[in-house]
Design a protein that fits this description.
heterodimer, A: alpha/beta, Rossmann fold, 2 domains, 4-stranded antiparallel sheet, 11 helices, 28% strand, B: mainly alpha, 14 helices, globular
Chain lengths: 291, 310
């Protein structure tokens, strides 16, 4: 069974179409990065998956209809939304107590173990914690839930590099076990590149790229072309061209690596570079582009 | 491996029979109510503050108590009883006022605050249904606050009793007359009934309405709750030159006569005994009110599904 399956998923806010017939299938045990410019429909898609917004079309998450069965679905699904949403009055000890009370799959000892590795005190209130610590707290709570799907919407927004690095490290080391599924959206694509197993680009409410990371690495090649080879390289129909320090960097899709090696220095592109190329080709003004 | 362990977890739950199902129904409710008490400490702090201020005033007034006692013997028994009981009625009144004020403000914030501070996204990430959440919030003004008001009133009156007795004994005035006129136990029975039935169940649709409107309004929840109601009254007056809606509202706010509470002190003591639970339970207004309250709460729960941060 697929973890998430969507067919013709549509959602409109008045005349604005947020999701325009999204086709989506996420198998269990994957770490999917859902990347898109601001307003592309990322959060709307996640909200539909989490049962936070009604939609048209077909959507099953872990075999359930999220809109009608949110509370049951949330036994198996966790999410961390775009900004810290832990209530500011909540004490750390109260958060642990409450979760242990309402969540059948929450392991309090595990959460306390994660918290012991941080400088968060159980007597602290959320409002007394720094932004990074609040995210650590939320992650500790979520990782102590034996869920099958974890949804992260911009989980590291506004955090410094240390916290961001630590966030993904603990997610991979302490949580991911190849049976759980993780869906993450972020603008900091470089940081998740080595974390993901699957990559999806979304633009204007449509999925414009859907591939596994193995496929990504074999399909896309970026070449810093020798100046004298530029014309030859262009003849191979790159999907994108940019100038870096006066040299042309061309991005190719499904062109042999050996063939390209003759033209210049070959490497696997960053997700951000592919993102710019794909978004540019889709005639969408790629605002808020990943850096 | 994970699916295996999940399946095992579920089957072990099933083997335990019905208990887990009952458990899973009441546990989220219990913890949600506790959660409300954690978040809204004013639920008990505000009535405590009211009680503290009242007690302070009462302590000062005990200076006049021995003098009052001496003139008491010149009055007839009914007036004596009123004079003695007056401060205790007053204490009950103060606690009722606190309960109503806190209840109204709480209801206007409960489903609004979680959207304002975006924490609704966190609460919705947990396996607690919207209906459980809304009902746990409705329990506070409809059940918890009246019970709390009762407990605080009893505590307050006991402190007053001890203080008055001490003052009277210390000043050499006998406490005999005073004690015979002090009938706290019937007062407590009456108060309990009045608070639970009247301030809780009878007013339930009012709190449910406030919760619903606050869950819907983006801002100015109080105005949205009150102005449409006033507008209906005014329109009815203009169009039909009648005031049925207004009198309906008045009836809801005031309550049926069966639990009129003698607040003014001059009401004779026997009025206290008027409270008739049987009569109250057979008032159709009670059941209609509860049905309306239930409908408002279900609507608020349906609405909360669509609601995100403001």
């Amino acid at each position: 069974m697929a973890c998430i399956e969507a067919h013709g998923l549509r959602k409109a806010f008045g005349t604005t179409i947020a999701l325009d017939g999204v086709e989506l299938r996420v198998e269990e045990g994957r770490i999917l990065g859902l990347i898109g410019p601001n307003g592309a429909g990322k959060t709307t898609a996640l909200n539909a998956i989490l049962g936070l917004t009604p939609y048209q079309g077909e959507l099953r998450v872990l075999g359930r209809d999220p809109w009608d069965e949110r509370d049951q679905l949330m036994r198996d699904v966790c999410f961390i939304a775009d900004v810290a949403v832990l209530p500011r009055w909540l004490r750390v000890s109260q958060a642990l107590e409450y979760l242990a009370g309402v969540h059948p799959r929450f392991d309090r000892a595990k959460a306390e173990g994660f918290l012991a590795k941080t400088s968060i005190k159980q007597t602290s209130k959320v409002r007394e914690l720094s932004k990074g610590m609040v995210t650590q707290l939320h992650l500790a709570l979520v990782m102590a839930i034996d869920a099958r799907l974890l949804v992260l919407d911009e989980p590291t927004l506004g955090l410094d590099i240390l916290y961001r690095k630590q966030f993904y490290d603990s997610l991979l080391n302490d949580y991911f076990d190849r049976t759980r599924t993780i869906v993450v959206t972020t603008h900091q694509v470089e940081e998740v590149q080595h974390v993901l197993t699957d990559l999806m680009f979304i633009n204007r409410g449509r999925i414009v790229l859907d591939c596994s990371m193995e496929e990504f690495e074999s399909r896309y090649v970026e070449v810093t072309v020798h100046p004298e080879q530029v014309a030859a390289a262009r003849a191979l129909k790159p999907i994108h061209e940019r100038q870096v320090l006066g040299r042309s960097v061309l991005l190719f899709d499904r062109v042999g690596r050996q063939q390209l090696a003759a033209l210049g220095e070959v490497r696997t592109p960053g997700i951000a570079d592919l993102f710019v190329a794909v978004m540019g080709n889709h005639a969408g003004s790629a605002q808020g582009v990943a850096r | 491996m994970n699916t295996q362990s999940n399946a095992m977890g579920e089957s072990s739950l099933e083997s335990q029979g019905i208990a887990p199902a009952a458990l899973s129904a009441t546990r989220p409710m219990y913890w949600s109510v506790r959660r409300e008490l954690w978040e809204n400490r004013s639920i008990y702090l505000a009535p405590l503050a009211f009680a503290g201020v009242f007690l302070f005033g009462f302590l000062i007034s005990t200076i006049h108590l021995p003098g009052k006692m001496r003139t008491l013997s010149t009055l007839d028994p009914a007036q004596q009883a009123n004079a003695v009981m007056m401060p205790y009625f007053f204490a009950a009144g103060i606690m009722m006022a606190a309960q109503i004020i806190v209840g109204v403000f709480y209801s206007l914030d409960a489903l609004h605050g979680e959207r304002r501070d975006r924490s609704i996204l966190f609460w919705k990430s947990l396996p607690v249904s919207d209906l459980t959440t809304v009902f746990s919030k409705a329990i506070i003004p409809i059940v918890i606050l009246p019970l709390l008001a009762f407990a605080l009133t009893v505590a307050l009156q006991l402190i007053m009793l001890v203080v008055s007795s001490t003052v009277l004994l210390a000043s050499g005035v006998g406490v005999a007359t005073w004690w015979t006129q002090l009938t706290l136990f019937p007062l407590w029975l009456m108060l309990f009934y009045h608070l639970v039935a009247g301030h809780g169940l009878w007013h339930a649709p009012i709190y449910a309405w406030l919760l619903l409107v606050a869950g819907w309004a983006r801002r100015l929840a109080f105005l949205w709750a009150v102005l449409p109601v006033l507008a209906v009254c005014v329109l009815e007056k203009l169009v039909f030159n009648s005031a049925h809606f207004g009198s309906l509202l008045g009836y809801r706010l005031r309550g049926p006569e069966v639990f009129d509470f003698p607040m003014k002190g001059e009401v004779p003591m026997h009025a206290l005994m008027h409270g008739d639970p049987g009569k109250f339970l057979s008032t159709p207004g009670l059941w209609l009110g509860l049905v309306v309250a239930g409908a408002f709460l279900v609507a608020a729960a349906r609405l909360r599904r669509y609601r995100g941060p403001i």
